[in-house]
Write a structure and sequence with these properties.
Blueprint (H helix, E strand, L loop, with lengths): L5 E4 L7 H9 L5 E3 L11 H6 L7 E4 L2 E4 L1 H12 L11 H28 L4 H4 L3 H21 L14 H15 L6 H11 L2 H9 L6
Parallel strand pairs: 1-2
Antiparallel strand pairs: 1-3, 3-4
Helix pairs in contact: 1-3, 1-7, 1-9, 4-6, 4-7, 7-8
The chain binds glutathione.
Length: 214
């Protein structure tokens, strides 16, 4: 497999950075197509032919075309993770618990809370002003984070314990997003997020996920 055959489409958002981060955790080489959301670049005929949903991120990997940030992160780990680098536990029950976190983060924190705030905040010109929905989404996020706070009992570890996993990539990107929106986050969560974002792979992801100068 060469880098030429592995292409990651999309930069500049909390969703696009997830597969960039996974690529770097796994030590993979890849090409970046730095298209951005809300620029029209996801609506071109060429990109629509790849993804009729017109969304980023998107991975092309030697004939496989895959969308959905969490699906890409877990696929990359399954396909290329080693005992040392894998982002999902090998044990079937630990893997189930890790995927439980992943689905929780994507559905309850990302889609049901933060994206609701984006729709009725930055994108209110499209989806309408909805201050009640916005405030309720922030409160809901804080409530859902209580189980995360309980899981982060170790001041040194990650969601699944000492091992950094796909769930941490998804969670950390949601925490950073929430902080940007001014949603209060507990200290233990902020400490955890600092640990996660101090990883060398995150710094590399910030570089490859950056919006290029025009
Ligand atoms: N559930 C998807 C969400 C993807 C998504 O909504 N991407 C946004 C950018 S963060 C997008 O491509 N928007 C393009 C547009 O609406 O024009 C994922 O996690 O990958």
């Amino acid at each position: 497999m060469t880098a030429t055959e592995r292409i990651l489409w999309g930069v500049g958002t909390s969703r696009t950075i997830r597969p960039h981060w996974a690529m770097h955790e796994l030590g993979l080489s890849f090409q970046v197509r730095p298209i951005q959301a809300r620029t029209g670049e996801t609506h071109t005929a060429a990109f629509t032919a790849l993804n009729a949903r017109q969304k980023i991120p998107l991975l092309q990997d030697n004939g496989l075309v895959l969308t959905e940030s969490a699906a890409i992160v877990t696929y990359l780990s399954d396909a290329y993770g080693t005992e040392q680098t894998a982002l999902l536990p090998a044990d079937v029950r630990d893997r189930a618990r890790c995927l439980e976190w992943c689905f929780f983060i994507i559905s309850e924190l990302d889609a049901t809370s933060l994206y609701v705030m984006r729709r009725h905040g930055d994108l209110s010109h499209i989806y309408g002003e909805a201050p009640t929905a916005n405030a309720a989404a922030a409160t809901y996020f804080q409530k859902q984070m209580r189980t995360v706070e309980r899981a982060l009992t170790s001041r040194h570890g990650y969601l699944m314990g000492q091992r950094f996993t796909a769930a941490d990539i998804l969670l950390s990107t949601c925490i950073t997003w929430a902080v940007r929106y001014g949603v209060p986050v507990a200290d233990i969560v902020l400490d955890y997020n600092q640990r996660a974002t101090q990883r060398p792979a995150f710094a590399k992801a910030m570089t490859t996920n950056a919006v290029p100068d025009k």
